[in-house]
Write a structure and sequence with these properties.
four-stranded antiparallel β-sheet; elongated; about 400 residues; mainly beta; 4 helices; binds zinc ion
Length: about 400
Amino acid sequence: MKKIFVFANMLIMVLFLAGCCKHEWVDADCDTPIRCTKCGKEKGQALGHEWADATCAAPQTCTRCGLTMGTTLPHTWVEATCTAPKTCSVCNATEGDILPHEWNYATFDTPKTCKNCGLTEGEPITLTEVQFDFIDKARNSYFFFLPDTIIMENSNEFPTVHILDYDGNEIKKINDDKDKNGGCSTAYSWDVNLDNSFAICTTDIDKDKNHYIRFYDEYGELLKEHTFTLNVPNVDYLYLRTSSLNHYPLFYSQMSLRPLVCIDPKTLEIVDESETGGVQEYKNNKKFKDITVLYHIDGDYRFVRMKDNSGAGYTDCELNEIKMYKDATNFNIRGYALVSEDGENYDLIDNAFNVVAKGFTQGKKAYFCGDYYFYVIDSENKRHYFCVK
Ligand SMILES: [Zn+2]
Ligand SMILES: [Zn+2]
Ligand SMILES: [Zn+2]
Ligand SMILES: [Zn+2]
């Protein structure tokens, strides 16, 4: 009888257990198997996490439950180019700016071209000999070529400066009346890489010993005037040159081109030379005494012509030789210069010293004369003008 009771009891329990819970199953997830929310009964196994690899945007992450582990990876950077900044190849994050293009200079066949992305700018170089009848007729005159106008100065009528159009018609005439007492004046436009403008420097020797520098735009409109005195004896010519760390020092010829005044080319204001470093740099440089002509070029080079006629060429800012030739000009606005190894045959170079055109003309001396123009003096003392764009 007892046995029967026990059995019945067990049966009741089994029935109770089986029949009394109407299971409510929830799906398995990463941590738990299928599970009854009422009685906690479990079936099968937990699914386990499904890890997605860490990236630079997120750490290792379970795609099901979003659990993360560890940290994000570093970006996979692709270095900046001239078309895109430094970019992560995985998440496309960017950092910094795009690089400047690395230009190959224009040649006669190809325009200026970026060696990285192939972008081109402008046109291939053209080099043409230009005839200017009015220049051939104008004896003892100096010409400087600006984009729209030609500035002419005749050594017989200092300090008059004529502004001509490209057919030789006079647009304007500037008489520097400060010079009437016999002072010396000159328009040293070609010495100064002013943007489309020129300068006249005057000294009123006999009257008030004042010195004048006037800057004009290419049509002869006055941009800026400076009047000042300098305690310098026996002044003759004033030279204004682009030579020193983006400043224009003013020189006197009798002073062996000793720089005296410094002008900021952007504001055209006289600046304290002690702030520039540049002028002092030349005063103290021993090599400076051997140089008759010195131009600043693009911040990196100086163009120099040696006093003893031994050559002309390019130096660094400290006047250490970079490249010297028998004859050379400074670079025009597009970065080209005429050079000659033998003093007779002239090559055109770009300002990385690549020869762009070899032996294209002969002469005995070459000069830079404006934004695009050079001239070469031949053995009969005739000037041959070349437009290089
Ligand atoms: Zn249950
Ligand atoms: Zn998970
Ligand atoms: Zn990334
Ligand atoms: Zn590029």
